[in-house]
Amino acid sequence: MKFPVFGRRPAPARPTSPSALSGHGAVLDHLRRVETEQPFARPSLVGRLLFDMTRKMIATDRGARLEDLLAILASTGGFVR
Prior knowledge:
- By secondary structure, the protein is mostly helical.
- The protein has a domain at 43-81.
- 52% of the residues lie in helices and 0% in strands.
- The chain has helices at 23-34, 41-58, 66-77.
- The protein is elongated, with a radius of gyration of 20 Å.
- The termini are far apart.
């Protein structure tokens, strides 16, 4: 009888149909397929998500100010020129 190393269970088989995957799993599966042709697909998606989240955080009833977004980017970079 063979036991898994350190009590780990073997990973379940991945579903083959995209409809069987959860939302997050379907996105990851899509990224794996697309990354063969577009190597920057994942960083591009992450950048769009971070921008959208940041815009929602700084938005007021009148919209988001560009100065606030630039201040966040500058402080993340460590300096302001």
